[in-house]
Amino acid sequence: MHLDQIRYVLTVAKYLSFSKASEYLFVSQSAISQSISKLEEELGFKFFVRSTKKVELTEKGTYSIELMRKIADLSDELLSLKSTDTIPNNIRLSVVKGLYLPFIFNLLDDPRFGPYVRISEDDSIKIIGDIKKELLTLGFCRFMKRIRALSIR
Length: 153
Hints:
Elements: H1 3-15, H2 18-25, H3 29-43, E1 48-50, E2 55-57, H4 59-80, E3 91-96, H5 102-109, E4 117-122, H6 124-132, E5 138-140
Parallel strand pairs: 3-4, 3-5
Antiparallel strand pairs: 1-2
Helix pairs in contact: 1-2, 1-3, 1-4
Domain HTH lysR-type: 1-58
Keywords: DNA-binding, Transcription, Transcription regulation
Pfam families: HTH_1
């Protein structure tokens, strides 16, 4: 299995067309078809039901697309490290005890951000102190009348 085969499958699945995938990728239609056929042979199942008029995903093809997207995304992320001196920053978030923020859980479920989000629970004074010390990226506190300890940059 090669990354270019995965990208070919993803592109054909996106357009449901070998000819449109060929135009998009600047690769001949026969090269894409042969490459995908080799991958199908290697894995032992077909991704697509092909006819002269249309292309449809098989059940295993539909499931495979999700896995291939993850592989392609991870590959892109790994390649992006080559062009930068830093790794992705972790998001350090603290919320006041008992505060329910649905978007936090959505953030954790998102495969693009989940590994980089660290959540803690504390009281407002501790959260403000941690923000001042730059130990947190973001903090949610209860309303306080006087917060002179922080300045907005």
